[in-house]
Design brief:
A hairpin with an 8-residue loop joins strand 16 and strand 17. The strands form four sheets. This protein has an eight-stranded mixed β-sheet, sandwiched between helices. The protein starts with 8 loop residues before the first strand and ends in a 34-residue tail after the last helix. The chain contains nine helices and 20 strands. By secondary structure, it is α+β, with helices and mostly antiparallel strands. It has a single domain, classed as FAD/NAD(P)-binding domain. Helix content is 24%, strand content 25%. Helix 1 crosses helix 9. The radius of gyration is 21 Å and the shape is globular.
C-alpha cells in the first residue's frame, strides 16, 4: 500500500501541534483527513497549549545535524503559516542561554561550535560576564557565567498557533471533530477503525468509523490507545508563573530575549533549569522550570504546588532585581510526554500496519511542529526519511529514562 499513488482516507487522533501539522501536510498532498480531539482546540490539558513555547537551535549537541536542520526548516514553515493566520504568532527577540560551563564537550559549547562551523552565522554571539551585565542589565549575572545569544531564536504563541492552524486546515477541507474522544482502535487487512465517543448528553454509545490509516498523535494520552507504547512514556507535571510588574518596560522584546539559566555543579549535574520570556501579548512575563517534575496521570489536577511557587519567587527575586516588587498574577501547570531518551516517536505502532504514532514531544517538540508533519507524511507515503530513521522506535522504549543532566537532546558529542 503506497499513499503517494492514491488518495487515502486518514484519521488523526489528537489536535496538538503533531496532529494538526500532520493533517495540514496530508491534506496538502491530496488525502482526505479527519482530526479527532477529545476536548476543545486548543485543549487546555494538552502539551501543545500554553501561551508561549521557545524556538531555539542550541543545546542539541549530540544530534545537531538532525535537530538544527529540522528547526530551521520549521521556522520557515512557521512564517509561511503565519502569513495565512489572522494573528501574529511567531516572534524573534532572540534566545539567551546562560551557563557556568562553556568548554569543549559541554552542550552549550558544542552547540555554538556546530552553528559557527556549519552556518558561519553572525547572529550567534558569545557574551562574557561583563558583556552580559551590560547588554542585559535586568538579569543578575554570577561571576562564573557566560552566555550564548542567538538573535535567530524566539518563541511561538503556542495556544494561539494551534487555534489558528486548526482554522486554516479546516478551511482547506480537513474535517475536525472537537469533544470527540477516541476510545479504541482496530485494524483489519483492508481498513483501520476508530471507536469514538462524542460529547452527547443523552447518548453514551460509540460511533465506529472506517479509515485507510490512523495517525495517533494523542500525546499524554497515548497509553489509553496504545499501551505497548504509552506505558513506556512518562507524563510529568511542569509548572510556571505569570508576573506583573511596574517595571515591565524593561522586559519588552527590544530589551530582553527568551532566556534560560542552566547552572551546573562540580559533578556536572544540573542544579536547576529555569527559563522565561519577554513581555507577552497578555501583558505579563512568564517564568517556568524545565527540570522534569513529578510523574502524574494526564487527567490529574495540575495546580502548582506551594514549594514550586516559593522556589520560583526566590529565583525571580535573586536573578531579576527589577521584579522584587512584582506580583504573581497566576500560575499553572502543563505536562511533558517524555520518551526514555527524550527523542520523539515517529513510527508505525508495533504489530500494526495501518496505525502510525507521532508522540513523545519530551518538552521540546512544539518548535518542530511543521517539520513533524512533513516527516510523518513522508513515511506514510513511503518516501525517503531525511532523518534516516532517527525517530523510529527500535529498542528505545526499553531504555531507562534519562535524568535531567542526561536528557537525550543535550548530551554533548564525544
Amino acid at each position: 500500500m503506497t499513499l503517494n499513488k492514491q488518495k487515502m482516507k486518514i484519521a488523526v487522533v489528537g489536535a496538538g501541534i503533531f496532529g494538526l501539522s500532520t493533517a495540514y501536510e496530508l491534506q496538502n498532498r491530496g488525502h482526505s483527513v479527519s482530526v479527532f480531539e477529545k476536548g476543545i482546540i486548543p485543549n487546555p490539558m494538552a502539551s501543545s497549549t500554553d501561551v508561549s513555547k521557545a524556538i531555539r537551535r542550541t543545546s542539541y549537541a549530540s544530534n545537531n545535524n538532525v535537530y538544527v536542520n529540522l528547526v530551521e526548516q520549521s521556522a520557515l514553515k512557521w512564517k509561511e503559516w503565519e502569513s495565512k493566520f489572522t494573528n501574529k504568532i511567531y516572534h524573534q527577540p532572540g534566545t539567551l542561554i546562560i551557563s557556568n560551563q562553556f568548554e569543549p564537550k559541554t552542550p552549550l559549547y558544542e552547540s555554538w561550535r556546530f552553528l559557527k562551523e556549519n552556518d558561519q552565522n553572525e547572529d550567534i554571539l558569545i557574551l562574557d560576564n561583563a558583556e552580559l551585565h551590560t547588554t542585559f542589565p535586568q538579569i543578575k549575572i554570577n561571576n562564573d557565567e557566560i552566555a550564548i545569544y542567538d538573535k535567530w531564536g524566539g518563541y511561538i504563541e503556542s495556544g494561539l498557533a494551534v487555534k489558528e492552524l486548526s482554522i486554516l486546515i479546516k478551511s482547506k477541507g480537513v474535517q475536525i471533530y472537537e469533544n470527540s474522544e477516541v476510545k479504541g482502535i482496530e485494524e483489519s487487512n483492508e481498513s483501520a477503525y476508530l471507536y469514538i465517543e462524542s460529547d452527547q448528553r443523552h447518548s453514551s454509545s460509540l460511533t465506529k468509523m472506517e479509515f485507510d490509516l490512523i495517525v495517533v498523535a494523542s500525546g499524554a494520552w497515548t497509553n489509553a490507545l496504545l499501551p505497548n507504547i504509552g506505558s513506556k512514556l512518562t507524563v510529568t507535571l511542569q509548572q510556571m508563573i505569570f508576573v506583573d510588574s511596574s517595571n515591565l518596560s524593561s522586559f519588552v522584546h527590544e530589551k530582553l530575549p527568551v532566556w534560560s539559566m542552566n547552572p551546573i555543579d562540580s559533578k556536572n549535574e544540573l542544579i536547576s533549569e529555569w527559563y522565561g520570556f519577554p513581555l507577552l501579548r497578555e501583558g505579563y512575563i512568564k517564568i517556568a522550570n524545565d527540570s522534569r517534575g513529578q510523574i502524574i496521570d494526564p487527567n490529574a489536577d495540575r495546580s502548582p504546588n506551594k514549594e514550586f511557587l516559593k522556589n520560583a519567587t526566590d529565583f525571580m527575586h535573586e536573578r531579576f532585581p527589577l521584579l522584587v516588587e512584582s506580583q504573581i498574577v497566576s500560575a499553572k501547570g502543563c505536562v511533558y510526554t517524555n520518551t526514555p531518551d527524550d527523542h520523539f516517536i515517529l513510527d508505525w505502532a508495533p504489530t500494526c500496519s495501518r496505525t502510525f504514532v507521532a508522540s513523545g514531544g519530551s518538552g521540546h517538540g512544539f518548535k518542530f511542529g511543521p517539520s513533524i508533519g512533513k516527516l510523518v507524511t513522508d513515511v506514510l507515503e513511503h518516501k525517503e526519511d531525511e532523518t534516516n530513521g532517527f525517530f523510529k522506535i527500535k529498542n528505545r522504549l526499553n531504555q531507562t529514562h534519562n535524568n535531567d543532566s542526561e536528557r537525550g537532546f543535550a548530551i554533548p558529542s564525544h
